[in-house]
Write a structure and sequence with these properties.
By secondary structure, the chain is of the alpha+beta class. It folds into three domains: 84 residues, no CATH class; 84 residues, no CATH class; 95 residues, Chitinase A, domain 3 (Roll). Strands 4-3-6-5 form a four-stranded antiparallel beta sheet. Strand 1 and strand 2 form a beta hairpin. Helix 3 packs across helix 4, helix 6 crosses helix 10 and helix 7 packs antiparallel against helix 8. The protein starts with a helix and ends in a 7-residue tail after the last helix.
């Protein structure tokens, strides 16, 4: 039920379909939007479809509701025909339905866990205070515009650094030597904060001036790196109210990760 809903009000819902709905509506239960061969399409399903359409930029209107009801009728007709054709019991259908059920239950379990273990306002305040304290006495967010290149060996890193010191542009060296995917962008990483990168790189970044390249190769678990500080800026941190939604989302994600980690630790998992 995606952008397709935009057009079905005009192209799929005929006046005859509307008149048929009006004709049978008096025999429907109060919570029903339509009935198809005795199968009830509930108002809850219609409201869910409307919310999906609204999230995609649609405007709520009687026409949108009619379009959603019409689409649900089509889906019901097709699923009923699939039953009559014996498709519901096919191996393919059973595999797909089992996967849909599994995905739904997984989402439901996570949603239920978060509902029972919500992120409180005090949790958000504590995280906000921690992040503000980490900014230091100036109470400003420092961001670094970074480029990097990654190679497999220290010798390769020294070769790259020698080329840069001789005057070759960093992006050209990164494009020819780096093993990282961003080599196609000349090693461009974008704006980051020191806390968002590994400490080995953060300690080098904060000591660089604009335009400088790390004086020595940086050893990392996955290889050897050179970084260039393209630019640097400071900004005021957001207020608590401004930061609250993103902090809540981050803490919620953390709770979900911790819950999943608990499940992993208590499970027997075998991977081929």
């Amino acid at each position: 039920m995606k952008k397709y809903l935009l057009s079905i009000a005009v192209s799929f819902l005929s006046l005859a379909a509307f008149s048929q709905l009006a004709y049978t509506q008096s025999s429907l239960p109060p919570n029903a939007a339509a009935s198809v061969n005795g199968f009830i399409i509930g108002n809850d399903a219609v409201e869910q479809g409307i919310q999906i359409a609204l999230s995609q930029g649609q405007k709520d209107s009687p026409e949108l509701r009619k379009a959603v009801v019409g689409k649900l009728i089509e889906i019901t007709l097709l699923s009923q025909q699939a039953d009559r054709d014996g498709l519901a019991n096919s191996d393919k259908a059973n595999r797909q339905l089992a996967q849909i059920r599994q995905n739904y239950l997984a989402d439901l379990e996570l949603a239920t866990y978060i509902a029972q273990n919500p992120v409180s306002d005090s949790d958000i305040q504590a995280e906000y205070d921690r992040e503000i304290a980490s900014l230091g006495p100036q109470n400003m967010i420092v961001e670094y515009k970074v480029s990097d290149l990654a190679v497999a060996t220290e010798d390769d890193a020294k070769t790259a650094l020698a080329r840069i010191k001789k005057g070759e542009p960093f992006d050209k060296v990164a494009g020819s030597m780096s093993l990282a995917p961003n080599k196609v962008q000349g090693g461009a990483v974008g704006w980051v904060q020191a806390g968002q990168v590994p400490p080995q790189i953060a300690s080098v970044l904060i000591a660089l001036s604009k335009g400088q390249v790390s004086p020595l190769p940086i050893k990392m678990p996955q290889g050897w790196y050179l970084v260039k500080l393209e630019d640097k800026k400071t900004t005021k941190p957001p207020t608590f109210e401004q930061a609250k939604p993103s902090i809540r989302a981050g803490l919620t994600q953390k709770k979900q990760y911790e819950f999943l980690n608990q499940l992993r630790q208590g499970a027997t998992i075998v991977v081929q």
